[in-house]
Design brief:
Helix content is 40%, strand content 19%. It is α/β, with parallel strands linked by helices and 378 residues long. It folds into two domains: 124 residues, Rossmann fold, CATH 3.40.50; 221 residues, Alpha-Beta Barrel (TIM Barrel), CATH 3.20.20.450. The strands form two sheets. An eight-stranded mixed β-barrel has the order 6-7-8-9-10-11-12-13, surrounded by five helices. A five-stranded parallel sheet has the order 2-1-3-4-5, with helices on both faces. Helix 2 runs parallel beside helix 3. The longest helix is centred in the N-terminal third of the chain and has 21 residues. The relative contact order is 0.09.
Length: 378
C-alpha cells in the first residue's frame, strides 16, 4: 500500500513498484489509508509506504493503523520536510525505514524489497498465533516443535568484532546465534518460533551455554555481548551464581532485545539490578528503531546503547541522520552511557560517525560474524 496526497508523485511511485513486480494499493490521503487498513486482513498487505504530512491523517497515524492491523507489518515513512522530531517519532514508533523525498526509485525498490523479505520470512518460519487469527493445527505445532528441537541441536554462535576506532583495537565481540536448521536460519525466525512454542528459556539457556563454552578462546580483555530476550529476565537460572556465564560475568554485557515485551516482566528494575550485582553489564540494542527505544533507557539504565543501523546507513549523505546521531551521543555522555554504532558498511559512514564523535563501531566494514574470534586490520 502507498499513501501520498501528491497525485503525480503517487503515480510515479506506484509505477516504480509495479515495474519491480509488486501489486500496489494506491491511496490518496491519510484518512483513507487508515480506513482501508481497518478493512484488510493482515495477509492482504506486505508493506506500507506513506507520506508523513497528509490530509485526513498523518503518516504516524497511518503507521499506528498498520500496526494495529499487524504489529509486524513494515511501514516506510517518507517526508520532504525532515526534522529531528519527526525522525525520532518515526523510528521510535516502529518505522521500518525513514525515506527522504525526492525518493530515489532504486532506493525505494530496495527498501520495499527488504521489507517484503522480512515479512515473508516471518510468515514462512512459524504459524501465525496472534489474537484473532486461527490457531495452528496440532500437526503444525508438532512439526514446528520438531524443527525447533533440531535448530537447538544445530545451534552455534558467530562472533562479530566491536572495534575502537581511535584505539585501533577490538573492544568486544557480539555473540550472534545461528543454526544449521535451514528453516530457522534467520535469527528472528528462530526466536519467533521459540515465542510461539513458549520455549524462549530453552533457547536462551542453550545460547548462554554455547557462549560459555567459547569463553576460553576469547582474546584477552575483550568483552562479549550476549543477546538476552526480555522473557529471559523471568528465567531464574539467569540469576544463579552457578549459571554457565557466572564465572565470566565481569566480561559479559547482556544486550536486551525485544524491548517491547519488557512491560510483561515484573520487577524489571530489581532484576536488572540483580544482574549487575552478579557483575554483568547491560546494553540496549537498536536505539532508534522499534517501539520502546528511549523509554527503555529509563527502565534499564544501560551502560551501553547500540545505535540502530537505520540511522547509520548513508549517514554521510543525510544531514538529518547526522543531527540525530549527534543528539543521541550528547544524550548519552552525561548519563555515562557508551554508544556503539552498528551496521557500519562503508568508509564514508565510518568517517562521518567519527566526525560526530563516535568511537565504537560494528559492521561488515570491519569484519563479518564468524565462528572464530576474527582479528581486524585497521
Amino acid at each position: 500500500m502507498i499513501a501520498d496526497d501528491d497525485d503525480n508523485l503517487l503515480r510515479a511511485l506506484c509505477r516504480t513498484l509495479e515495474r519491480a513486480g509488486h501489486d500496489v494499493i494506491r491511496i490518496a490521503d491519510g484518512g483513507a489509508a487508515c480506513e482501508h487498513l481497518g478493512m484488510l486482513d493482515p495477509a492482504d498487505v506486505d508493506a506500507v509506504v506513506t507520506d508523513i504530512t497528509m490530509p485526513g491523517a498523518n503518516g504516524l497515524e497511518v503507521m499506528r493503523s498498520a500496526h494495529k492491523l499487524d504489529p509486524d507489518l513494515p511501514v516506510l515513512l517518507m517526508t520532504g520536510l525532515p526534522t529531528v522530531e519527526t525522525a525520532v517519532q518515526a523510528l521510535e514508533r516502529g518505522a521500518f525505514r525513514y525515506l527522504l523525498k525526492p525518493v530515489d526509485p532504486d532506493v525505494l525498490v530496495q527498501a520495499v524489497a527488504q521489507a517484503v523479505e522480512v515479512r515473508h520470512g516471518l510468515r514462512a518460519a512459524v504459524p501465525d498465533t496472534r489474537p484473532g487469527m486461527s490457531p495452528p493445527s496440532s500437526r503444525a505445532r508438532v512439526e514446528l516443535g520438531s524443527r525447533f528441537d533440531l535448530g537447538l541441536k544445530r545451534l552455534f554462535m558467530a562472533f562479530q568484532p566491536i572495534v575502537s576506532w581511535h584505539g585501533k583495537t577490538v573492544h568486544a565481540y557480539e555473540a550472534l546465534v545461528r543454526t544449521d536448521e535451514p528453516t530457522l536460519a534467520r535469527p528472528e525466525n528462530f526466536f519467533h518460533a521459540a515465542e510461539q512454542l513458549h520455549r524462549v528459556h530453552d533457547l536462551g539457556r542453550r545460547i548462554r551455554h554455547s557462549v560459555a563454552e567459547a569463553m576460553t578462546h576469547v582474546p584477552p580483555d575483550a568483552q562479549i555481548f550476549v543477546n538476552l530476550h526480555a522473557a529471559d529476565l523471568a528465567d531464574e537460572t539467569l540469576f544463579s551464581g552457578t549459571s554457565a556465564l557466572a564465572p565470566f560475568s565481569s566480561r559479559i554485557v547482556f544486550e536486551i532485545t525485544e524491548r517491547a515485551s519488557l512491560e510483561r516482566v515484573k520487577d524489571i528494575k530489581e532484576r536488572v539490578a540483580a544482574l549487575r550485582g552478579l557483575g554483568y553489564r547491560i546494553a540496549v540494542d537498536d536505539l532508534g528503531a522499534g517501539y520502546a527505544g528511549l523509554s527503555s533507557l529509563a527502565s534499564l539504565q544501560p551502560e551501553v546503547v547500540k545505535l540502530d543501523m537505520s540511522l547509520v546507513r548513508d549517514v554521510d549523505k543525510e544531514p538529518i541522520k547526522q543531527r540525530l546521531v549527534a543528539s543521541l551521543q550528547t544524550l548519552g555522555g552525561p548519563l555515562g552511557i557508551t554508544m556503539v554504532a552498528e551496521g557500519v558498511e562503508t568508509i564514508a559512514e565510518r568517517d562521518a560517525l567519527v566526525a560526530i564523535g563516535c568511537d565504537l563501531f560494528q559492521g561488515y566494514l570491519f569484519a563479518p560474524p564468524t565462528r572464530t574470534f576474527s582479528s581486524v586490520t585497521f
